[in-house]
Amino acid sequence: MKKFFLSLLLSAPAALLCAQSVGKGGITPDMLAAFRKAQPADQTATALRNALAGTSINQIATNPANPDASDTYFSHEVPSKGITDQQSSGRCWLFTGLNVMRAQMIRQYGLGEFQFSQSYCFFYDQLEKANLFLQAVIDNADKPMDDKLVEWLFKNPLSDGGTFCGVIDVVTKYGLVPAEVMPESYNSNNTSRMASILSLKLREYGLTLRRAAAKGEKPAALQQRKTEMLATVYRILCLCLGEPVQQFTWTMKNADGQPVSTKQYTPQSFYREYIGKDLRAGYVMLMNDPSRPYHKTYTIDMDRHSYDGAQWTYLNLPMDEIKPLAIASIKDSTMMYFSCDVGKFLNSKTGILSLRNYDYASLFATDFPLTKAERIATFASASSHAMTLMAVDLDADGKARKWKVENSWGPTSGHRGHLIMTDEWFDEYMFRLVVDRRYLPAATLRLLDQEPVKLPAWDPLFAGEE
Q1: 0.85 cut: is pTM over it?
Q2: Of the candidates 274, 300, 315, which is a domain's last residue?
Q3: 76 catalytic, yes or no?
């Protein structure tokens, strides 16, 4: 009987099927006729259709008279030495966090151009994320595969993206090394294939652990299985990235390239000598999310890079409270970890982020009125890229006109390796700022004492991780 009705449905005339959809939410012939009748038929509409047939939307919508594109002066700027390049990888969070620390080291010790090894930190980040996934699978082995958290884990076993808390987890545990000690490789600069191979292996391992747990295997046996699995992950990482050094010799050179000292280090001793500070206690993660109450703290389940790492806490503040903290930091020559929705209204040729770069409303004869809160709630906007906030241009009243970040897309990208954003753009698309706690007033610091609201891993706030 089922086969009969299926064959009848497949052989039914198209008109009959269309008639059945009338009044039930489908697009009807009358609706299509109205759409066609409403289309403009003048020369302007024809010209726009012709132009868009062979040209990108942004090219047609570009506002050539945008005054924001020509002003590159900044009243307050933290000196920078050398632009980094993450190439075809999602490691902006790591480059940004290390750029914040390297700027401090360069200033304190009078160095020339200097970089920490991103590849060294990335190796351990990937190993820790693999362990985080496998241990989370063990911890949730009693839940069904269609459980929301279990489903999320298998969708996201590992990635090269992250946040500043990941920088802290890795650096605090494994230390730092100069870039020349463990240089970049093809697979650190081009992470997609390695990530897909590791993710496939981790999904296999995750299923193996679940099946073993379902058969009643003891916790100690599951941990032994996990250890053996991580050994394979370690081997793959060594082949792709090289094995991390455990001890090295480094010569410090001043800004003129003259040697200052030569010493032997471990990665941990190098970190302690040149950075030293307690990163977890020293920094506060601020966010601007108008879809949630301000002056509250939030944490996101699984928002860490290592199983034994800190679950980061975000303090949600309005923009008029975040900006003074950023200005104070820049005036004190201290760069900050900053993340935003970088793809919105970016002119990649000029490096300008301005709401006036593109006039989509005039091109398509319709407005796009969603507020920042509405864009967050509907997944239309989220934090997608991390950069180093380093400059602000203030007017005579001390209000910000524009901001500048040091990017990690190479020295020829944007404005000499930097991006410049108007203050209006900053309001709409800035999401996170990591500030040294010494710039926060006592009343703001007290807000961190409250119990944070715990959000699930699939919350919109996490969905666009940089």
Answers
A1: yes
A2: 274
A3: no
